[in-house]
Automatic annotation (TrEMBL):
Native organism: Rotaria magnacalcarata
GO cellular component: plasma membrane
Protein name per its UniProtKB record: Cationic amino acid transporter C-terminal domain-containing protein
InterPro entries (alphabetical): AA/rel_permease1, ATPase_P-typ_TM_dom_sf, CAT_C
Pfam family, one: AA_permease_2
Domain Cationic amino acid transporter C-terminal residues, every copy: 523-573
Positions of transmembrane segments: 34-54, 66-85, 97-115, 162-182, 188-208, 281-308, 328-347, 377-396, 403-423, 463-482, 494-515, 521-544, 551-571
Length: 595
């Protein structure tokens, strides 16, 4: 019985391995440069964040402090991006966080991440096409909406108000472009992203000429005189909704940066990926952080935060300051920016499907590569059709609510994976001389001997990382669900918080004391273990802030995924066949030696 349970656990946690010469071998066409990857990352990240999210957060959540919200979100994204960049240098393969988790944590966790990445990209593509459809419709006086409500209404409360054929068509159009080839898609993306960046530069320069510092310091008396609105408009000043509003805005703004992981999914289509992927991720996050903060500064200086139109922030802002001629310039930038976001969301989806199907965890036929185009055709078409159906029947708000948990889980597990790999032995982990075996628990935790990791030190570090993650979840939960008790100086709540905080600090000290491997790669996450740990804690906090409805949808999606894995993936895993073959060869060798 025990051996059966151990074998089952061993199968669930089997890890994917690559020989050094396999890392650069791919059926996909390697044609992307650092420039292509960076523009792809910028194009997929900018778009809905600039033209929609900025206005919503400024108007409803943070006021002028939306600038700090974006800055906090940028820091959180950079922490995750540094971990992605290291894995891009270690394992430049298609699949992004799925592949990274497979090589470091194990198969079952890799499948969970990959399955949620599929959901993230499908919903991201559907929501972006809905946003593009809505923005275009606003420029033509909402004629499409009027027509669709009249002739294609959806009366079920679960779905949108009407079937959006235009949004569905956009998904299918981008799918056709991706089938033709990634280089051609990247060229179109480069042109559209260039137009978008030019428009943003015009917006910032023109907006600064109409800036008024008074809009960052609106007095409470001025707020009290506003009687023509039923909305909650805060108390004025730079923090009209308090620090809590700024932090809540940061949680929302965080999703404006999620497009950077597109760069990591193209590892098998990139020239010199071990150099290109880390550089592109860093450039993408730097440019996007500057753009988001610049647009936020301009908007909140041009218009009082309570007058910002969350649905059409830039056109209405220029109308307010009598620069209405710029409305059409902004419209061109918005359409090209949101279109490149759609392209950047649909592009990684087939790469993740291809990676998972190639490993046998979902149906293998999905991984078929077109021999001439060298693109994952079936995965591209399948992903595009599912995204198009979602865009047809769901509205933007419901779609956005469903996409967050997969992203945050992926970021967390990539950070955990960096920690696991950094503390593993470089060579065979089953070293004959394990200097930690005879040491006391205290010495093992805080004063380990030796400068290089061993099997025992790596095992101990994994336990410490696991305990740190669990303790961090509890710590974040206390802060979220008992925050009002702590604010009211409830002694029990404060004592419990301090206990878990001290425990977390001890775990961090113990992990930092363990020996790290010194294997040199092109890019390494700096300040390990502190950067990955901070990323884990931030992501955990944001995950626990999600609504119960999101967790219910996550549960339904995961139930479907576990059915596929249990009845197909577990038995058809390529790594299972490799491990079984190695066991058979090992057994044959042992029998030969015995005889």
């Amino acid at each position: 019985m025990t051996s059966t349970v151990y074998r089952f656990y061993d199968n669930l946690t089997r890890k994917k391995t690559y020989a050094t010469d396999e890392l650069h071998v791919s059926e996909l066409k390697r044609c992307l440069t650092v420039f292509d990857l960076t523009i792809l990352g910028i194009g997929s990240t900018l778009g809905t964040g600039t033209y929609i999210l900025t206005g919503q957060v400024a108007h409803e959540t943070a006021g002028p402090s939306v600038i700090l919200s974006f800055l906090i979100a940028a820091i959180a994204s950079v922490l995750a991006g540094l971990c992605y960049a290291e894995f891009g240098a270690r394992a430049p393969r298609a699949g992004s966080a799925y592949t990274y988790t497979y090589v470091s944590v194990g198969e079952i966790m890799a499948f969970i991440i990959g399955w949620n990445m599929i959901l993230e990209y499908v919903i991201g593509a559907a929501s972006t096409s809905r946003a593009l459809s809505g923005y275009f419709d606003s420029l033509i006086g909402f004629q499409m909406k009027t027509f669709f409500i009249k002739y294609l209404p959806l009366h079920a409360g679960t779905f949108a108000e009407y079937a959006d054929l235009f949004a569905m068509s956009l998904c299918l159009l981008v799918t056709v472009l991706l089938v033709i080839g990634i280089k051609e898609s990247a060229l179109l993306n480069n042109v559209f992203t260039g137009i978008n960046l030019i428009v943003i530069a015009i917006v910032v320069i023109a907006g600064l000429t109409k800036a008024h510092l008074h809009n960052w310091d609106i007095s409470p008396a001025e707020i009290k005189n506003i009687t023509n609105t039923t909305e909650t408009i805060g108390s004025g000043g730079f923090f009209p909704f308090g620090i809590e509003g700024t932090l809540a805005g940061a949680a929302t703004c965080f999703y404006a940066f999620v497009g950077f992981d597109l760069v990591a999914t193209t590892g098998e289509e990139t020239k010199n990926p071990q150099r290109a992927i880390p550089m592109s991720i860093c450039f993408t996050l730097l440019v996007c952080s500057i753009v988001y903060c610049s647009v936020s500064i301009v908007i909140t200086l041009m218009v009082p935060y309570y007058l910002i139109n969350p649905d059409a922030v830039l056109p209405e802002a220029f109308q307010y300051v009598n620069l209405s001629a710029l409305k059409y310039v902004v419209g061109v930038g918005a359409l090209t920016g949101i279109f490149t976001s759609l392209l950047g969301t649909l592009l990684p989806l087939p790469r993740v499907l291809y990676a998972i199907a190639s490993d046998g965890l979902i149906f293998r036929f999905i991984a078929w590569i077109h021999p001439r185009l060298q693109t994952p055709m079936i995965a591209t078409i399948l992903g595009g059709i599912v995204s198009a159906i979602m865009a047809l029947i769901f509205d933007l708000k419901k779609l956005v609510e469903m996409m967050s948990i997969g992203t945050l889980l992926a970021y967390s597990l990539v950070s955990i994976s960096v920690l696991f790999l950094r503390y593993q032995p470089v060579d065979d982990p089953l070293l004959p001389n394990d200097e930690l075996a005879s040491l006391s628990v205290y010495r093992q935790l805080f004063k380990p001997s030796g400068r290089r990791p061993t099997f025992s030190s790596a095992k101990l570090t994994k336990y410490l990382i696991t305990c740190l993650t669990i303790n961090g979840c509890i710590l974040c939960a206390i802060q979220i669900f008992a925050g009002h008790h702590i604010a009211n100086k409830n002694p029990t709540a404060i004592i419990v918080l301090i206990i878990f905080l001290i425990t977390e600090i001890l775990f961090i000290i113990a992990i930092a004391a363990q020996p790290k491997n010194q294997k040199s790669i092109y890019f390494q996450t700096p300040c390990v273990p502190y950067v990955p740990i901070l990323s884990i804690l931030i992501n955990t906090y944001l995950i626990l802030k999600l609504s119960p409805a999101t967790w219910i949808r996550f549960g339904v999606w995961m139930f479907l995924g576990f059915l596929i894995y249990g009845f197909y993936g577990f038995w058809h895993s390529s790594q299972r066949f490799i491990n079984d073959t190695q066991r058979l060869l090992s057994g044959s060798t042992s029998s030969f030696n015995d005889s």
